[in-house]
Design goal:
With about 160 residues, this protein is mainly beta. It contains 1 helix and 9 strands.
Length: about 160
């Protein structure tokens, strides 16, 4: 059995939200320095050259922004977030050049019908671009989520 343990560094985050009647706006910023991560116990079957966090990963500033607007029983939502690619290769492996970090737009709606049926739909769209060795990857992300529930009263 190949077991290992990674000691993760601290991450720092700050966020804020404001709500005024039918509109809510929120955002947060998070900083993480994976270059400070270390193996507490190195895997036995480690692929050569993958143990150096300091040179193979980059620090990253992630942020999220969002808003929700209520129209009667319907919440309309929009958001944006950036989640940088942290792994950059090197040390005997192909270097990765990040052309565009993960940028994602979210949209959604949710509400209730007759105060009993709850529904929520959302779409997540975005992507990133990177060059690894001689190959360029252009990754597009599209995800759709839907949920429904029934709320009832117990006498």
């Amino acid at each position: 059995e190949d077991a290992y343990a990674i000691k993760s560094p601290f991450e720092f985050a700050v966020g804020a939200a404001w709500s005024g009647g039918v509109l809510t706006v929120s955002g947060d910023v998070q900083y993480g320095d994976l270059q400070q991560a270390t193996y507490e116990e190195l895997p036995v079957a480690t692929v050569p050259h993958v143990e150096n966090f300091r040179t193979q990963y980059r620090s990253a500033l992630r942020y999220h922004l969002g808003a929700e607007f209520w129209v009667q029983n319907l919440a309309l939502r929009v958001g944006y977030y950036r989640d940088p690619i942290r792994y950059v290769g090197g040390e005997g492996l192909a270097d990765i050049q990040v052309v565009q970090d993960r940028d994602v737009l979210t949209v959604g709606a949710g509400g209730s019908l007759e105060k009993a049926v709850l529904f929520d739909v959302a779409a997540v769209m975005g992507g990133y671009r990177q060059i690894e060795g001689g190959r360029e990857d252009h990754v597009r992300i599209v995800r759709v989520f839907a949920s429904m529930g029934y709320q009832f009263e117990i006498p």
